[in-house]
Amino acid sequence: MTFLSSGTGNKDPEMIENGRAALRAAEVLKSLQAGEIRIYDVRRQPAFTDFCVIATGKNKRHLRAMADILVLYLRSRNCRVLGVEGRGGSWVAVDCGPFVIHLMDSRLREYYEIDSAWRCAQFSLEDVSSLPAAESA
């Protein structure tokens, strides 16, 4: 699977930047000890976003802390955060428009089988090397 190319093979700069932003969010979650981090490219699926980042937290406090830190990080990088839903619960969603981040406890993640809907679009953190180098600011 080619992560950031359109169906025609041309690279769309906006999609590349959105993909990079989703990757940065996933890397922040990894540094916050999130588990089972997955990024899904859902552009070819009937979806309301281009990328979904899904990660598991240890408990409600961990989920809330990850969401709070992630929102601060994203805003510091001039990434638009449209909304945060579920703070203090077992499922926190951070909507950034072109990508949405779902932070869940393992029980809910298993119950809803959220990963199975997008399994064919899975992308892992190890694929970072396939992205074009970030331009220096």
What is the CATH class designation?
Alpha Beta
Looking at the overall shape, the CATH architecture is 2-Layer Sandwich
Strand content: 15-25%
Main pleated sheet: 6 strands, mixed
The run of helices and strands is HEEHEEEHE
The N- to C-terminal Cα distance equals: 29 Å
Helical proportion? 25-40%
| Arrangement of strands in the largest sheet | 3-4-5-2-1-6
Mean pLDDT: 81
- Overall number of strands: 6
What's the Cα radius of gyration? 14 Å
The tally of domains stands at 1
Number of H/I helices: 3
User: What is the name of the CATH superfamily?
Assistant: Beta Polymerase, domain 2
Shape: globular
Strand-pairing-aware structural class: alpha+beta
The low-pLDDT segments are 1-10, 131-137
CATH topology: Beta Polymerase, domain 2
Can you tell me about this structure?
It is a single chain. It contains three helices and six strands; from the N terminus they run H-E-E-H-E-E-E-H-E. It is of the alpha+beta class and 137 residues long. The protein has one domain: 2-Layer Sandwich (Beta Polymerase, domain 2). The protein has a six-stranded mixed sheet with strand order 3-4-5-2-1-6. Helix 1 crosses helix 2. The termini are far apart.
Output the keywords.
137 residues; alpha+beta; Beta Polymerase, domain 2; 6-stranded mixed β-sheet; 3 helices; 6 strands; 23% strand; globular; disordered C terminus
